[in-house]
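Input (Dihydroorotate dehydrogenase):
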Amino acid sequence: MLKTEISGINFENPLILAAGVMGSNASSLNWILDSGAGGVVTKSFSQEPNLGYSNPTTVAVEGGILNAIGLSSPGVQNFKKELALINKSNKDGQKNIAIASIYGSNPDEFSNLVHNIENDVDMIELNVSCPHAMSGCGAAIGQDPDLTYEIVKTVKNASSNNIPILAKLTPNVTDLMEIAKSAEKAEADGLTLINSLGPGMKIDIDAKKPILSNKFGGMSGPAIKPIAIRWVYDAYENCDIPIIGVGGISNYKDVVEFIYAGAKATQIGTSIMYEGIEIFSKIKNDLKNFMQKNEFNSIDEMIGYSHKN
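Output:
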């Protein structure tokens, strides 16, 4: 009932761990997979090691969290050791789906990463959207439709086994559909919408200065969900490739909204900090009950339902 498929990859359910600190090592990823997630996305990593920003890197704000990790990365050769330790199946014997999130500053860096890891994971997600990345990375790429096209196209051509490629896009643009169509034209296999909003800032009124060491960071959490839903809805009407919805999910009703808007799957990140990893099994059970109550036999029957009314 809960199964969903994206570019030939079958997920047991539409609940995926979003790229972030919970995906920093195999132990954490396996823990999430055994908790009921349909798949996991690693923390974004790069070709060479990157220290990222110093603490504090996160701060709670109204409606979510501001974070500026700075895309810290151990480098691909170190992270490959973690990828090798991800269990092939979960405690229930179901196949685990592992998605690697990668970033770079130019097409060559992305293609080299793909060469390094394409046999270690099931899919690759291109982070061309981080709003607090070091210069030349993240949203600096994803705000440019031509550069987005070039990177997606280069990565697709670089893959020797035609591994599915997802483009994770930034909402911090004038026209996100222009970027989405560029990724689709470059033959991306799917879109992940959206990355965090911003950048934003929170000031410590006693210290009289910004709390984050980088001063500003990306906004995630429940406050950004309506914006994420809107862009998933628009992408469903304007693009013909699968969509994974992410942004502010904390319960099954949020998941249903994303699916009705057009998402084939969803990603959960910030809410884990408040709800724990039990959030995956809880939402999975609640979603199944909702589907039975509303006489849906599959996720496919629900996808894009809001466009029919």
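The two ends are 23 Å apart (CA to CA).
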